[in-house]
Amino acid sequence: MIELKHLNFGYDKHHEILHDISLQLGQPDQNVIGLIGPNGSGKSTLFLNLVGILKPQSGQILIDGRPIKYSKHGLNELRKKIGIVFQNSDQQIFYAIVKDDIAFALHNLKLPQAEIERRVDQVLKELDIVHLKDQPIQYLSGGQKKRVAIAGILVLRSEWILLDEPTSGLDPDGRARMLGLIKGLIGRGQKIILSSHDMDFMYEIGDYFYLLNGGQIVKEGTKDKVFADEDLLTQSKLEQPWLVKLHQRLGLPLYLTPDQLFQDHGGKTDLHTGLTR
Asked: What's the predicted TM-score (pTM) here?
């Protein structure tokens, strides 16, 4: 359980970015939590507070009931619980070869070499990137780099993974692969917090949502509750998912995924393009 209690943060005392944020992450049936909001609303800043890169000016963050400790040891322990994958994967890729970069954090933990190799091989298989093991990072596509960055977190076996704009810069095939990857992680019990402007992606994958605007949580709830409020989404410079639009404007049932809609109407979905045939 991650709990935020009256968290406030600003990069200087005159400009508060997060204001009085209180929430609990990790309730039953909330395996994928979505954090949505316009640019500048504080989403990335909140993520950086959750992993201890930034420290709140006031308030608390508790992990399993214990406040974060900002000592070197405390932050190392925190990162075993919560890992982050940045929007720009290049920010967290340090080595020239894929397998070396994935193993980087494990070497810092001083794990035995055999254990490091076992974990690296395991995540390479899980993420379907075994063929990239010995490849130079510079030759990878944006989607492949994101998978390598995720692999570098998965080897730590963190309970939580924060994914900041995971579909940013991806083509339709890369987006579909990212969706499948996240569904696979959910299936193995991984807890995930997502931040994205891709409302269709968020609607399909998320269980529970927090809408952040002006540094405050202005709405929270399940997808049917949060995405039904078109006026609030518009005020927050966000667009309703197309499945919700169909529901509200054409009177169709509220489908949770495109597959459900197409199955009801006799079509099949191409998972790589999103088109019906």
From this structure: 0.87
